[in-house]
Amino acid sequence: MKAATQLKQKLLITLILLILARLGIFIPIPGIDHNSLSNNVNNNGLINFLNIFSGGGFSTIGIFALGIVPYINASIMMQLLTKLIPELENLQKEEGESGRQKIGQITRYFTLIWSIIQSIGISLWIKPYVFNWNYQFMIDCIVALSTGSLIVMWCAEIITEYGIGNGSSLLIFQNIISGIPKNLQNYKINIYDKQTIINGCFFFVLFISLLMINILIQECKRKIIIVSAKQLSKINILNPQSYIPLKLNQGGVMPIVFASATMTLPIYFSDNLQTSKINGVISLFLPGHTLYLPAYGFLIIIFSYFYTSLVLNPEDIAENLNKMGASIPSIRPGSDTSKYIKRILDKMTLVGGMFLFMIALIPSLIAKTTNTSLLQGLGTTSLLILVGVAIDTAKQIQTYIISQQYDNIME
């Protein structure tokens, strides 16, 4: 009974904070011509992409328009800096919980800086749609958006610590879900048309297939069996339950997110640069042109390698195995173990990146062959995020219930 009550409290905290973060998007900053702004957003590829993760915040410019994006940017920057700066790496590894708290505090400072920078960019971008734009409006806009971003960051951290699931992921999950009904409004379904019914069945089967492929990519892993000297001395056999799980897609959805965001830049430059020679080169990277798909696939694979290097360090794994007195069968401890794990990771990352590229192309291929963009309303990036967050949250709930049952048994 006690475990059920605690789980209800965690779920209640999570729901309240998610609702709070959602309501803040609909509190608009006054003094803006929102109708003209909304029309511009619909025709802007880069803003449309950011709008997915803000839950429509960029079309309304609400006080929570930046959403969790500055916090995610700051977290990624801290992951990169931790790998590059030895002091931060020692802070994370050697100082335990206090070190993690210090890194968390630095991440919050970076979030504030990122939110101010992005707020300045938004205040300048919406200048044509402001009734009376001046520096006072600019300051008010920056303060409102930055404060909103910090409140959303606070909601994410409270959910992670006292609620269920990862706060940042759940906020993005919520924003994507909120955009699905709006996308579906663009499609009219005639139940008396035979072709419409056939297309509907086809898209339903395709959607389920995409969902299954995404789940497989999220859950697929390579198990590297490890054995300790103590095990070998006693039974002289390997324990298949002792292994290092290496996921096929270590970066999750982030490689597609980074690649998609990068591929919107040629669209932005093409609309804003007036030099014909430069536009001629940039046009090659626009959707439907020669270099778009090769560049998109290349970026997904590159970002897959980049994010895998941030998440996993083969040298750290080899060092930890050595400290535990464990090793991989037939592989010498130390540098050989590190090279072995790196070799496997490189192969898996390449395969995972290619799979991500293939499923990212499916909505575009379907749109070209059937002359409809139904699947593009959701998008593979969004689908990957939804699947990943749903699986992780369900696992956390299951783990929490099992741990509480174990505690009850021990009592």
Automatic annotation (TrEMBL):
Which compartments does it reside in? Membrane; Plastid, Chloroplast thylakoid membrane
Membrane topology per the record?
A: Multi-pass membrane protein
The UniProt keyword set, sorted, is: Chloroplast, Membrane, Plastid, Protein transport, Thylakoid, Translocation, Transmembrane, Transmembrane helix, Transport
Q: Taxonomically, which superkingdom?
A: Eukaryota
Location (main, coarse): membrane
PROSITE patterns recorded for this chain?
SECY_1
Record-level GO BP terms = intracellular protein transmembrane transport; protein targeting
- Segments spanning the bilayer are 12-32, 52-74, 109-127, 133-152, 159-177, 197-217, 251-269, 289-307, 348-367, 373-391
Query: Sorted alphabetically, which Pfam families does this protein's record hold?
Result: SecY
The record ties this protein, via InterPro entries, to:
SecY, SecY/SEC61-alpha, SecY_CS, SecY_dom_sf
Q: Which GO terms describe its cellular component?
A: chloroplast thylakoid membrane
| Similarity comment text for this entry | Belongs to the SecY/SEC61-alpha family.
Protein role: The central subunit of the protein translocation channel SecYE. Consists of two halves formed by TMs 1-5 and 6-10. These two domains form a lateral gate at the front which open onto the bilayer between TMs 2 and 7, and are clamped together by SecE at the back. The channel is closed by both a pore ring composed of hydrophobic SecY resides and a short helix (helix 2A) on the extracellular side of the membrane which forms a plug.
What quaternary structure, including any partners, is listed in this protein's UniProt entry? Component of the plastid Sec protein translocase complex, which is composed of at least SecY, SecE and SecG. Component of the plastid Sec protein translocase complex, which is composed of at least SecY and SecE.
Q: What is this protein called?
A: Protein translocase subunit SecY
The species is Gracilaria vermiculophylla
Organism lineage string: Eukaryota, Rhodophyta, Florideophyceae, Rhodymeniophycidae, Gracilariales
